[in-house]
Amino acid sequence: MELPNLLVFFRNGLAKVINIGEMENSFIAPHLVSQERFNRAEVQPDGYGIYWNERAALSFHELFRHGMTVPICLEDMNRYVRNRIVSASEACSMLDCSRQNIDDLMRRGKLHPIRTDAKYKLFSKAEVAGRKRV
Predict the structure, then answer these.
(1) Which domains does the chain have, with CATH numbers?
(2) Looking at residue 53, what is its pLDDT?
(3) What contacts 39, CB < 8 A, 6 or more positions away?
(4) Angle 125-133/88-95 helices, nearest 10 degrees?
């Protein structure tokens, strides 16, 4: 299974893309077998790394060493999220429709949430705007 790269922002202002699958660490290998298990990783308190359990962790030193620097900063990411990601309510407003219609578009594969939770859904503003033209 090919896992997505991680985009990590470090306190020194650098951002790095990290391919976790290429890292040599026998403790994390069992967590790389499926997207579901991989997604269980959490950021350690104070940002000292990521972990799945007490034995399966990657320190920020390991992440920094294996990452490839990319020309983006946290403010760039925040600006992108503020301007290019919309909530279900905003999508309803843009499409002049109800939440039930948004749910129906999702069920039919016509609208793809970036993130879903019990209380909210987030969408690409470009995809929602594209639906308006259809």
Answers:
(1) 6-72 (no CATH), 83-133 (1.10.1660.10)
(2) 85
(3) none
(4) 20
For the chain (134 residues), the mean pLDDT of every run of 10, in chain order, is: 79 87 76 81 82 85 90 93 96 96 96 92 96 76
CB 16 within 8 A of CB 69: yes
| One-character DSSP codes across 81-118 | HHHHEEEHHHHHHHHT--HHHHHHHHHTTSS--SEE-S
How many helices, marked H, and strands, marked E, lie in the chain? 6, 9
Q: Which of 115, 112, 109 is nearest to 128 (CA)?
A: 112
